Recover the amino acids of this structure.
């Protein structure tokens, strides 16, 4: 769908239908993902069901709705341009054999790391991203803390901008998101990052085109679950428990 068309249409609706707006404004606590438009956030996500969001990174938008609020039209647009949904699919991605680096500067055999017989959650990020990655990383941070008792779980964030994301940069990023020991950040050669992105069908030619995707699997004998969109921490934890029950 054409986002600009939606926004334009909504704006007209705002002008002509105040009553409608007041109704919509009650949904204003939903997130504004309009700044994610350039990342193609919603392009493929129209078909899925789940619409629960982690709002932790967007508290500033959680204003109470008021009847005479002059920003009601803005809120209405936010709530309606942000029907972010999670598109869930299953894939047999093959981790390539690569030697990369973790945030401590240690060599990591990527294939060995990813082909673990233990549960795993993976995403692709870059530390200077102003939009998608802070949301994904905030969610990972909450999950990392809430699943602290799950000793087998490994969480992995792979840089798609390894030239900027040195091990030191990743270590600072990890500290910022209070990453526990079981959350590893991966960088290395740009070609290797691209190879890895292609293996997980997330390479889009430029870091500026990247999409929010989270991958999970119970162990190396299972397919990867691919979640496109912005799952909340509760959703990710739900996926984790679901997967641990053998589904
Ligand atoms: Cu990003």
């Amino acid at each position: 769908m054409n986002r600009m068309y939606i926004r334009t249409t909504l704006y007209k609706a705002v002008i002509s239908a105040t009553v409608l707006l007041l109704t919509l404004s009650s949904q204003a606590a939903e997130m504004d993902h309009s700044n994610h438009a350039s990342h193609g956030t919603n392009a493929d996500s129209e078909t899925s069901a789940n619409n629960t969001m982690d709002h932790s990174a967007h508290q500033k938008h959680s204003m109470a709705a008021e009847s005479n609020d002059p920003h009601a039209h803005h809120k209405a647009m936010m709530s309606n341009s942000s029907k972010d949904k999670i598109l869930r699919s299953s894939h047999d991605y093959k981790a390539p054999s690569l030697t990369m680096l973790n945030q401590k500067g240690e060599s990591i055999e990527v294939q060995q790391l990813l082909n673990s017989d233990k549960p795993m959650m993976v995403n692709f990020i870059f530390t200077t991203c102003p939009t998608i990655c802070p949301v994904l990383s905030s969610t990972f941070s909450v999950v990392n803390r809430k699943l602290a008792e799950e000793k087998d779980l490994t969480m992995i964030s792979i840089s798609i901008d390894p030239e900027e994301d040195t091990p030191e940069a990743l270590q600072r990023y990890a500290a910022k998101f209070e990453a526990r020991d079981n959350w590893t950040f991966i960088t290395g050669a740009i070609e290797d990052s691209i190879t890895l992105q292609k293996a997980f069908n997330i390479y889009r030619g430029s870091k500026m085109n990247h999409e929010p995707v989270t991958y999970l699997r119970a162990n190396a004998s299972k397919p990867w679950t691919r979640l496109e969109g912005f799952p909340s921490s509760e959703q990710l934890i739900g996926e984790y428990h679901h997967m641990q029950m053998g589904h």
Remarks:
- The first strand starts at residue 87 and ends at 91.
- The pocket of copper (II) ion is lined by residues 125-126, 129, 131-133, 210 (CB under 6 Å).
- Confidence is low (pLDDT under 50) at residues 8-83.
- Residues 3-43+54-80 form one domain.
